[in-house]
Amino acid sequence: MSGFELYPAIDVRDGRVVRLRQGDYAQETRYADDPLAVARRYAQAGARWLHLVDLDAARAGGYTLAPLLAAIKSETGLRVQTGGGVRGESDVEAIRRAGADRVVVGSLAVREPARVAGWLRSFGSEHVTIALDARQSADGDWLLPTAGWTQDSGVRLDALLSDYMAAGLQHLLCTDIDRDGMLTGPNLALYRRILAVAPQARLQASGGIRDVADVAAARQSGCAGAVLGKALLDGRLELADAVAEVA
């Protein structure tokens, strides 16, 4: 395997594997009742990593997937980056204790960047993935909305990236909100822009990936990995084919 990593995604709500359309809880598609079985299938297809999201915690706080995470770690051998509802240092500590290789921090990374930057130092930047959800404004700037993507945080992507790079950021996941769950292809222009600002970041493409060609394009754009969600669950993309593409 090359330095490019694939992150098949399992989003869990009420114990089931689901996907939300552009993050909207009212636009949910259910796929499976057993997330562990899906993780086993991804491991058998050649995955090395898993992207695990607690959608219940993302809305209400309080990470709920510790038993599932422990089972995935013990039964599949997958490395796992996971998050949802991270509100403070104790949440990061609890998720790490449950077995996470990396803790994903999203909204708080936008609202309280100085606090989260401190976690890069205290927990080690290799153990934290900063996840930023971006939407392009009419003037071409990239904004970072919060509160389920309904509120303008007043934070701009380029400025926040510069701050995090100064704090030692390694792992960055960025989702183009308008492409999330839409199967319209990754926003390569956005990823090239990010890497111009943060060239040392291990950037994970997220949102819109449809097929092996999209995986190859994300890799060629300079990304270090890709999150694969709806295309895998819908059967449009076979994980084994994606693994072969980046091998």
UniProtKB/TrEMBL annotation:
Q: Name one GO cellular component term.
A: cytoplasm
What Pfam families does this protein's entry cite? His_biosynth
Q: Locate the transmembrane regions by residue number.
A: none
Highest taxon of the source?
Answer: Bacteria
Report the subcellular localization.
Answer: Cytoplasm
Q: Which top EC class is named for this enzyme in its record?
A: isomerase
Alphabetical UniProt keywords: Amino-acid biosynthesis, Cytoplasm, Histidine biosynthesis, Isomerase
Which SUPFAM superfamilies does the protein's record reference? Ribulose-phoshate binding barrel (SSF51366)
Which Gene Ontology terms describe the biological processes this protein takes part in? L-histidine biosynthetic process; L-tryptophan biosynthetic process
This entry's Enzyme Commission designation comes to: 5.3.1.16
Instruction: Give, as in the UniProt entry, the pathway in which the protein acts.
Output: Amino-acid biosynthesis; L-histidine biosynthesis; L-histidine from 5-phospho-alpha-D-ribose 1-diphosphate: step 4/9
CDD domains for this protein:
HisA
Q: What one GO molecular function would you report for this record? A: 1-(5-phosphoribosyl)-5-[(5-phosphoribosylamino)methylideneamino]imidazole-4-carboxamide isomerase activity
Q: Which HAMAP family match?
A: HisA
Output the NCBIfam families linked to this UniProt entry.
1-(5-phosphoribosyl)-5-[(5-phosphoribosylamino)methylideneamino]imidazole-4-carboxamide isomerase (TIGR00007)
Quote the protein name from its UniProt record: 1-(5-phosphoribosyl)-5-[(5-phosphoribosylamino)methylideneamino] imidazole-4-carboxamide isomerase
What organism, scientifically named, is this protein from?
Answer: Aerolutibacter ruishenii
Gene field? hisA
